[in-house]
Amino acid sequence: MSAGQVLLGLARAEYVVRNYDKARELAGRSLSLSQNHSPLDMPRLHTLLAAIHLAEGAGGESIRAGEQAADLAARSGQRLEQARALLILGHARQLAADHERARMSWQQAHELFTAIGTPEAHLTASLLR
C-alpha cells in the first residue's frame, strides 16, 4: 500500500466523523502523491473530495471534483465509483440550483446502481420522484 493510499484511507475516516478540514487536508496530501496512486484510486480520491466540498457547502468545487471523479471512473471501468460520483455530483448541482443537470446526474447514477444491483438504487429512485 502506497503513502497516497494510506492518506486516502485516513481522509475517508476523517470525512466519516465529519472532520472535514482534516479530511480535505489529507485528501490534498494524497492527491499531491498522485503519481504513486493506481488509476483505480484516483476516481475514489476525487469522489471523496467532491463529498467533502459538498459537505462544506462549496458547490462549485464539488461539481468540479465530481465531474472529474465520474470521468476517471468511467475511463477506468469502475461503474460503482462512477455512480457514486454522479450521485454526489447531482447533490452539488442541486445545491447550485442547477436542478435539470442534478436530475440528469441522479438518473445516470440510478441506471448504474440498478445495472450493478446495489441498494443505492433505492436512494436514487427516491431522488427521481
Characterise the protein shown here.
By secondary structure, this protein is an all-alpha fold. It has one domain (3-127): Serine Threonine Protein Phosphatase 5, Tetratricopeptide repeat (Alpha Horseshoe), CATH 1.25.40.10. It contains seven helices and no strands. It is globular.
Mean pLDDT, as a whole number? 94
Which segments are poorly predicted (pLDDT under 50) over 5 or more consecutive residues? none
| Inertia-based shape | globular
- Rg value: 14 Å
CATH superfamily: Tetratricopeptide repeat domain
Helix amount? over 70%
**The number of domains:** 1
The CATH topology = Serine Threonine Protein Phosphatase 5, Tetratricopeptide repeat
Q: SSE string, helix = H, strand = E? A: HHHHHHH
- What is the CATH C level class, in words? Mainly Alpha
Strand content: under 5%
Total helical segments: 7
SS elements, strand count: 0
Largest sheet: none
Q: Identify the CATH architecture.
A: Alpha Horseshoe
What would you say about this model in short?
The chain has 129 residues and is mainly alpha-helical. It is 79% helix and 0% strand. It has one domain: Serine Threonine Protein Phosphatase 5, Tetratricopeptide repeat (Alpha Horseshoe), CATH 1.25.40.
Primary descriptors:
single chain, 129 residues, mainly alpha, Serine Threonine Protein Phosphatase 5, Tetratricopeptide repeat
Q: How are the SSEs ordered, and which strands pair?
A:
Blueprint lengths: L2 H14 L3 H13 L8 H15 L3 H17 L3 H17 L3 H18 L3 H8 L2
Helix pairs in contact: 1-2, 1-3, 2-3, 3-4, 3-5, 4-5, 5-6, 6-7
